[in-house]
Every structure is written in structure tokens, then in C-alpha cells.
Amino acid sequence: MKNFLNYFIWPVLAGFGFAATLLLAPWLTNHIPALAAFKAPQISAPATVTVAAVSYSAAIKKAAPAVVSINSLNKVVRTTVKRSLFLSLPYLDQVTQEDQSLGSGVIISKDGYIVTSYHIFFGSDPNAFPLDQQITVTFNDRRVLPGTLVALDQKNDLALIKIDQDNLPFLTLSGNRNPEAGDVVLAIGNARNIGQSVSSGIISARWKTDDSITIQTDAAINPGNSGGALIDVNGDLLGINSTIISESGGSEGISFAIDAGEAIKLLMGFRKEYESTSTKSYLGLTTDVALSIELKNSRKMLQGFHVSSVNANGPADRAGIREGDLITAVGNQEIHFANNLNNPKGAAETLRETAKLTSLPAFQLVMFTVLRDSSDKEAGKVLQIPVILGKATADISDSGPDATKPSASASLQ
Fold first, then answer.
1. How far is residue 164's CA from residue 143's CA, in Å, rounded to a whole number?
2. Residue 399 banded pLDDT, cuts 50, 70, 90
3. Fewer CB near the last or first residue (10 Å), C or N of the chain?
């Protein structure tokens, strides 16, 4: 019996006692102050942190109705040099073709002015001469309206379209006129013709030149997004999407937009000219002499007017005509005059050719053919440059050549 108590009963009683002590320990520490120091610390559950979801839906809802799709169907004449099959002599072959281009645009006034990219309508092919152009504007609610080009800014890759519609939703300039690298931006446009879509990113850099500002961003700007809106997180306009740098043709995180202030300048300049009471068109350049030039490696002789100066921010300047260029054709009519400009016949022919440039109606789209100046990196190139003529305003001299005094010079303002 003694062995039973020693090896069984006492261990069982000791175990019950230890268990009771453990179970009663919390009660004892709460009711006996001397034991409070031995109370185990309470471990609280981790606090629940609520993180608000980041959304730019309000900005998109504000801006999206003012972003449209642009479709341009162009009939062009392409000129190529071919050789005769039998005599191996070169000759010019002209073929009429249809070109279609797609892009985006941004409504910037309630009365139907839309800014978009210049390169949507006029590519880099100097051998393509446009004969006709049909522009349609598609809203995000699927309405389709015809559009008309009214102003061009080749230097900033901008074009202004007018549609016959009022009370339209439009975007206003962002209050942040000096966005910085790291600011969040959103790009809206008709990427790859799949319909309106949105991409987000940040401003990578902001490049300022003498007369313009370019915004670099990593927001995806794919083909078809050109001319679309670059907005801030409040849904206000920062820039007009322009170009991408890509080896594959897709977005690689290096995209550029033109500062939206340039688009507003283009609109305000057009309105100032449109409201002018003048009846004369405005080209904005001066020629000093009529020249005949023989092209290198060719027997072709080009005749035209030498551009001595270009008025800053005038139609010719915005279109890309430069000082030193030789204007050789207006529309599809080449300029021809007698080699001897001092005789009466030569002077009269010069005046007739000058009239082609000075009597054109305002706001007409005219294709100028120019021979690039020898001091330019494009020296010797014959370029097709589209110009939308302005209207002379009160603060612009609209004096033209005096028809009673034959001269080889012409002021084309």
C-alpha cells in the first residue's frame, strides 16, 4: 500500500494541484496585488488598416466626353521616277491613290473647335500631293460629324478642326501650368482604333525650348492616340499626345505630348484672324527676287520666288516655310516666268505669278512646293508644304505688290 501511495496517488494529487494553480493563476493575479507583477502581458489583436482604393474614374468621366476619334481619307497623287523598259530613260509616273489615317482629337471650345495632331493629315512623304481630303469626327457616344481643317501648326505638330455643332463638352487647361517629373498623368485616345481607352503613368521629364514646351511621359501612347488628351488627376488638360519613340511600333514607355497652351494659342490666333474685317488673305512672308535654279544631277530648271523673311507665328511660319526657301509652285500650278526679268514681258509674267500668291482667299488650304535652302539640313529637297492662309488683321500690314510698278519682288503679307 505504501508503494502504491508513493508511486501513484501522490503524483496524481501533485498533478491536480499544479493544474489548479495554472487555472487559478489569472484569478489570483487579479485579486492579490502582490501577484500582479507576475501577470502575463496581454497580446492584443493587430489593428485593421483600411487603405482607400486609388481611382481616377472621376477624372476620366470628366474628360472622356471631350475626346474624339479622327478619321481622314485623303486622295493623293504620288510621283515616282521610273525608267522606260526599252530606252532606259527616266520619266515621272503619277498615280492617284487613297490614304486613310486615324487619330484622336480634343474639343477645346463649346462651339466645335477640336485640336489634334498635324501628322494625322500630312505625312512625311514629299512625293504625295493631296487632291482631296474628307475628315470625320466620331464622339464617344458614336455620333459622327464632318470636320474641316481651319489652322495648322507644323512646328508644334498641331492642327485645328471645326465642326458645325454647339454646346459641346470641352476641356480646359489644367491649373498646374508647371507640371513636374513624377506627377501622375492619364492619356485618353483611340489607341489602335479599338475605341476610346485610357492609360496612366507619370511625367518623366519636361522639355522647354524658346517657343514651346514638350512633356515626356511613360503613359502608353499607341498608334491612334496621336492628338488625344493628356490630363491631370483632376481631369483637366495638360497636353496633346503627339509621338512615341519605339523600335517595335508599340509603346515602350517614352512618349511625348505638346503642352496644351500651344493648342489654345492656335485657337486664339485663328479666332483673331477670323473676326478680322479685312478682305485680304495673310501668308506672312516676303520674297525679294524671282530665281531660276537648275537642280543638281538633273536637267530640270526650277523657277520661283526666293523667301527673304518669314513673319513669326504667321501661317507660313507655322506651316514650316523657312527663310531662304524657293517657292516653285502654288497648288498644282508651277511658277514660270521669263529669264530676263528686266524686260516688260518678263516683269508682267512675274506679276502674274505673284498674283497666285497674293489673291488667294483666306482660310483656304493651299499646297506650296518649295526647294529647301542650301544652308538647311534638308538642302536641295523639294517639299510639299500645306498652308492654311490666314486673314490680315488690323495690326498686320496687308500691302501687296503694286501692280502699276512691275517688280521681281513681292510682299506676301
1. 13
2. very low
3. N
Q: Which residue has the cell 489583436?
A: 45
Long-range contacts of 403-407 (CB under 8 A, 24+ apart): 403/351, 406/344, 406/347, 406/348, 406/350, 406/351, 407/347, 407/350, 407/351
CA gap 267, 314 in Å, rounded:
13
Do 285 and 268 sit in the same domain of this protein?
Answer: no
Q: What are phi and psi of 214, to 5 degrees?
A: -120, 135
Helix ranges, 250-343 (H): 260-274, 315-319
Between CA 189 and CA 295 the distance in angstroms is: 44
Residue 399 maps to a domain = yes
User: Could you confirm whether 288 is annotated as catalytic?
Assistant: no
What's the pLDDT tens digit per position in 166-200? 999 999 998 887 888 999 999 999 887 788 889 99
255 catalytic, yes or no?
no
In a domain, 394, yes or no: yes
Of the residues 69, 104, 117, 119, only one is catalytic, namely 119
Q: Looking at the 3D structure of the chain, how many domains does it have?
A: 3
371 close to 322: Cβ distance less than 8 angstroms:
no
Same domain, 210 and 289: no
Rounded Cα–Cα distance for residues 340 and 43 (Å) = 105
Domain that holds residue 334: 281-412
* Residue 111: active-site member: no
Asked if 289 and 261 sit in the same domain, the reply is no
| Assessment of whether the complete model's pTM goes beyond 0.85 | no
Give the span between the Cα atoms of 182 and 186, in whole angstroms. 13
Same domain, 81 and 11: no
Query: Within a domain: residue 317?
Result: yes
Q: Which of 72, 104, 153, 157 is catalytic?
A: 157
Q: Which residue has the higher pLDDT, 82 or 74?
A: 74
Q: So what's the pLDDT on residue 220?
A: 83
